[in-house]
Amino acid sequence: MYTKVEQIDCIACGICQLKAPQIFDYQPDGIAFCKLDNNQGQQALPNQLLPQFKLAYQQCPTGAIKRRTKPF
Ligand code: F3S
To answer: Which keywords accompany this UniProt record (predicted)?
Structure first.
């Protein structure tokens, strides 16, 4: 699984970093990014992070967190 934040859709709500602190972090302006690969969507999520990824993905209120089975 690969992920990145569609930053134009992020409202800086903070949920993803709370649910998946090993995957997501915030820029100084509060907009989220995937910290595994600086939001490039090129690095596969390690299996052990999939449960927390799922929580963040499901709870993002705007659908800004994208996922694909292949790199972006
Ligand atoms: Fe933004 Fe969604 Fe995270 S709105 S802060 S990507 S939960």
So the answer is: 4Fe-4S, Electron transport, Iron, Iron-sulfur, Metal-binding, Transport
- Range(s) of the domain holding residue 12: 2-67
Count of residues making up the chain = 72
Q: What is the per-residue pLDDT for 41? A: 98
CB of 18 within 6 A of ligand 1: the answer is no
Say if CB 55 and CB 19 are below 8 A apart.
Answer: yes
For the complex shown, is ipTM > 0.95?
Answer: yes
Measured from the CB, is residue 62 less than 6 Å from ligand 1?
Answer: yes
Q: How many domains does the chain have?
A: 1
DSSP string, 31-69: -EEETTTTT-S-SPPPGGGHHHHHHHHHH-TT--EEEES
